[in-house]
Design a protein that fits this description.
Helices cover about 70% and strands about 10% of the residues. It is mainly alpha-helical. It has two domains: about 90 residues, Winged helix-like DNA-binding domain superfamily/Winged helix DNA-binding domain (Arc Repressor Mutant, subunit A), CATH 1.10.10.10; about 30 residues. The chain has a three-stranded antiparallel β-sheet. Strand 2 and strand 3 form a beta hairpin. Helix 4 crosses helix 5.
């Protein structure tokens, strides 16, 4: 009977949230340390990495990818543009819309930095085998989508 109670407590929402939070903080610490070694701030690294892997993006879409507010996104792009790592360009369809592009200088900088960051993150997750990584990714997506759906539903209900 005690084992059943312990199992329920170990799988309670609060306990799972604490485990996820602690694991997330530990992984985030390693990621920050890895990015710090690049001598870029986290937001600038994120912008360069997103442009490397996603290609040119409108500034709003880029901000959503790297989880930056509009003001922080503008500041990051301004810094990177002054350094010659990115450039803004108007789109042919809507001249008011600005798309951010990685410059050749930016690409030459971020490629080796990201490769090292990728190796660092592989080391962080090296204690998980392939099936465990696949299962973790599936569970985290499911958890995230469920939480997002709850938030969206609550937002709709609050606006009524």
């Amino acid at each position: 009977m005690a084992n059943s109670t312990e199992d329920r407590q170990a799988s309670s929402g609060v306990h799972l949230w604490l485990l996820l939070w602690k694991a997330s903080k530990a992984v985030e610490s390693q990621a920050r340390q890895s990015v710090r070694a690049t001598e870029l701030c986290l937001s600038d690294f994120g912008v360069l990495e997103a442009l490397l892997h996603k290609g040119p993006l409108p500034i709003g879409a880029l901000g959503k990818k790297v989880l930056l507010s509009s003001g922080s996104m503008t500041a990051a792009v301004d810094r990177l543009e002054r350094s010659g790592l990115v450039e803004r360009a108007a789109t042919a369809a809507d001249r008011r819309s600005r798309v951010v592009h990685l410059t050749e200088k930016g690409s030459k900088l971020i490629r080796p930095l990201f490769a090292e960051h990728e190796r660092d993150m592989e080391r962080v997750f090296s204690n998980l085998d392939g099936p465990e990584r696949t299962a973790l990714a599936k569970l985290l997506r499911k958890l995230g989508r469920g939480a997002e759906a709850m938030s969206a539903k609550e937002s709709v209900e609050e606006s009524k």
